[in-house]
């Protein structure tokens, strides 16, 4: 990897073949080393051959991914282009296109485009659910946290301390600061 210079382009004809031969961990390690060396990587992956978690890990470390889907019994297809900006924003654009056997690309048009934060898009693999449902999200917003401006304002009007002296109270009649000179 010492020979890899910045802006070196590495093309993998099929990452799927590498993954099948060497395993997920070794291929991910290789990709991480290449990324640390600032190499640009282009690779073809067949997502139907891998687990959804592994495909999402690949998409997480990639700056750009293109997913192509062919509609059955139609010459109209669509692609989803997802690219990540250095700021962490992710832009997803969906385009449809038609192919003709003789002419090649006949037409293409943008179906939709949206931006989102990367942190909301892909959650790490876990044995428990990390996302919140709509009801949980509403409940979370209604919780009043202590020591916030909202909670302090509500305490000013709703709570008071009442003290009633008791016969068993121990009061000193002497001044504890009597030896101090002010």
UniProtKB/TrEMBL annotation:
GO CC term, one of those recorded: nucleus
Subcellular locations according to the entry: Cytoplasm; Nucleus
InterPro entries registered for this protein in UniProt: Elp5 (IPR019519), P-loop_NTPase (IPR027417)
Keyword Nucleotide-binding applies: no
Bias (Acidic residues): 166-182
Similarity comment: family membership: Belongs to the ELP5 family.
Name by which UniProt lists this protein: Elongator complex protein 5
Native organism: Artemia franciscana
């Amino acid at each position: 990897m010492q020979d890899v210079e910045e802006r070196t382009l590495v093309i993998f004809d099929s990452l799927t073949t590498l993954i099948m031969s060497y395993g997920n961990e070794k291929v991910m390690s290789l990709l991480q080393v290449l990324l640390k060396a600032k190499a640009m990587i282009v690779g073809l992956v067949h997502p139907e051959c891998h687990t959804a978690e592994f495909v999402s890990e690949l998409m997480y470390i990639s700056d750009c991914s293109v997913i192509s889907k062919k509609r059955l019994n139609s010459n109209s297809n669509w692609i989803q282009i997802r690219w990540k900006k250095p700021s962490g924003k992710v832009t997803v654009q969906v385009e449809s296109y038609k192919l003709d056997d003789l002419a090649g690309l006949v037409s293409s048009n943008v179906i939709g485009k949206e931006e989102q934060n990367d942190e909301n898009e892909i959650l790490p693999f876990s044995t428990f659910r990390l996302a919140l449902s709509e009801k949980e999200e509403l409940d979370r917003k209604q919780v009043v946290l202590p020591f916030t401006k909202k909670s302090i304002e509500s305490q000013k009007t709703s709570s008071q301390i009442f003290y009633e002296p008791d016969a068993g109270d121990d009061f000193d009649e002497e001044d504890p600061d009597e030896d101090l000179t002010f």
